[in-house]
Specification:
Oligomer: single chain
Number of strands: 12
Shape: globular
Structural class: alpha+beta
Order of helices and strands: EEEHEHHHEEEEEEHEEH
Distance between the termini: 31 Å
Amino acid sequence: MLQIKTFVFNPYQENTYVIYDEHKNCLIIDPGMHHYQEESEFKAFIDEHQLKPTQLINTHGHIDHVLGNNFVCDTYNLVPQFHELELPLVIEVQNYAPQMGIRYEPSPIPETFLTETDRLYLGQEEFELILAPGHSPGHLCIYSAQHRFLIGGDVLFKGSIGRTDLPGGNHQQLLESIASRIYQLPDETIVYPGHGPVTQVGEEKRSNPFVRG
């Protein structure tokens, strides 16, 4: 049985996720902790539940989703994994974080990159990767067909969609990604977004003002 823990971190109120199984293995997704208190809160949860982090995944490379990459790497010896098209965004964070007054230790850079044909594994659990560009060029969503949930990053929100006015954004491409990739999932699929509350694919197909199913 999988469990999902949500943290809300940093000034952008970003959702950081920990997915863990009955054997205490866990995936860390989009660590957004940006100061010592948030790092301590995160580590306390891992320690309290005796979890064993096995992978660090970034859905995309914007500042609010990678602020904790260095901390997770130093603490759990995990190098972040993300799509190669996100590399320029990840590198650029170190240049503008100080201008915004945000403490940031530069993210480690992986030697290899994820693609949409890869699979992630947590014990016996398998996750598909869905490439959904538009908010950013190489944005990946993480999908569990068995458990019917999607870690959606900043693609689809409850009643909204991701921004496209940031570097690498493309509004039409985002709409197409949602319609052709996210809305093709079962209606009961729970979407865990990068910000705000969870939603369901079916609910967004019926009521999302930006993209109707």
